TrEMBL record, chain B:
Comp. bias regions, Polar residues: 85-94
One Pfam family hit: SoxZ
Organism, as annotated: marine metagenome
Region (Disordered): 85-104
Domain Sulphur oxidation protein SoxZ span(s) in chain numbering: 12-100
UniProt-listed InterPro entries: Ig-like_fold (IPR013783), Ig_E-set (IPR014756), SoxZ (IPR030995), SoxZ_dom (IPR014880)
The protein, known as: Sulphur oxidation protein SoxZ domain-containing protein
Length: 155, 104
């Protein structure tokens, strides 16, 4: 049942995205131009990572730390903080494997900013939260499992 | 309607941590209004651009999977007191907002 509702919802969201892309809301296109739409639309983690980073080698790394709860009582607000000791980080992304759309958020880091990104995300169910860091031509990743008691993806 | 707040804290690495809170509903487009039974249209922040002394230092891309009233944090590595830091956000309905602060 929930799945039905979600599927319908994702079509509705798709229509809005198309309308937006067609230029109905021109003033914001300049800023939104680099919003990685394909990554956000991807339905599984591998596709999403490919959509944003391309075919770079993915390696497990212990240079990434993730601070997140072991158990989240409310899936609508799960604080995630990721930081890395890699000095040349270019992008940091947070991906929730079992969310309907796994790609949660990402940040592009330019010179002058460090390898830290923290935000609060929604999680539908218990899932590993993976943090990807692009640095030096490779993608480094680390994961942390968050148990969710009540999902927070609407529907 | 949408208020944006920024806090800057000194980090032990020598830089500053910039924390931004945007008051925003972050609707996924999947939730139904309980009274009317209709879908609440998607409404979420898409991009947040952080600038430090006028130069962009980070651009965050957010999606519907980010919680209501998003609180984001980034780290500035090369910052000193007196510098200005600003943030500008845009959502999927064309609304924008932002704020500016000076490092103490």
């Amino acid at each position: 049942m929930k799945r039905r509702v979600f599927l319908k919802g994702s079509f509705a969201a798709g229509t809005i995205a198309v309308a937006a892309a067609a230029g109905l809301l021109t003033p914001r296109r300049v800023l939104a131009a680099s919003w990685p739409e394909t990554a956000f639309d991807a339905k599984n983690e591998t596709d999403a990572v490919k959509a944003l980073f391309g075919d770079m080698p993915v390696v497990d790394s212990d240079a990434i730390s993730i601070k997140a709860p072991l158990q989240a009582e409310n899936g609508a607000v799960v604080p995630i903080k990721a930081w890395t000791s890699l000095s040349n980080a270019e992008a940091i992304a947070i991906v929730v494997e079992k969310n309907p759309a796994p790609w949660a958020t990402s940040v592009e880091v330019m010179p002058g900013a460090g390898g830290l990104y923290s935000t609060r995300i929604k999680m539908g169910q218990t899932s590993p939260v993976t943090c990807y860091v692009k640095a030096g031509g490779k993608i480094h990743k680390a994961a942390h499992v968050v148990k969710v008691t009540v999902g927070g993806c609407g529907g | 309607m949408a208020a944006t707040k920024m806090k800057i804290k000194k980090d032990k690495s020598g830089g500053h941590v910039v924390m931004v809170l945007v008051k925003h509903p972050m609707e996924t487009g999947n939730r139904k209004d309980k009274k009317t039974g209709k879908k609440v249209p998607a409404h979420y922040v898409k991009t947040m651009v952080f600038t430090h002394n006028g130069a962009a230092v980070a651009q965050a891309s957010l999606g519907p999977a980010v919680s209501k009233n998003p609180l984001t944090q980034i780290l500035l590595t090369n910052s000193n007191s007196g510098d200005t830091v600003s943030v500008q956000w845009t959502d999927n309905q064309g609304e924008t907002g932002g704020t500016e602060a000076t490092i103490k």
